[in-house]
Design goal:
With 66 residues, this protein is mostly helical. It is built from one helix and no strands. The radius of gyration is 27 Å and the shape is rod-shaped. The chain starts with a helix and ends in a 6-residue tail after the last helix.
């Protein structure tokens, strides 16, 4: 019982150390993700602004079969 408890504590401590050492990389990954999400939002906003112009140009293109 005591050995299994000691093994469990050792496992939790080891896992904690491994997670602690990876925190900078995880933080960098999360910051990068936030920046990518913001970039996608900006691109979506630009696309929405361009939609009327895209529709106008498409309406002037010859249709297949014409």
């Amino acid at each position: 019982m005591i050995i299994s408890l000691a093994a469990a504590v050792a496992f939790v401590l080891l896992a904690g150390v491994l997670v602690w050492r990876q925190l900078p990389a995880l933080r960098t990954a999360l910051i990068g993700t936030e920046e990518r999400v913001e970039a996608v939002r900006r691109l979506q906003a630009r696309l929405e602004k361009l939609q009327p112009r895209i529709a106008e140009v498409q309406s002037k293109l010859p249709r297949s079969g014409d």
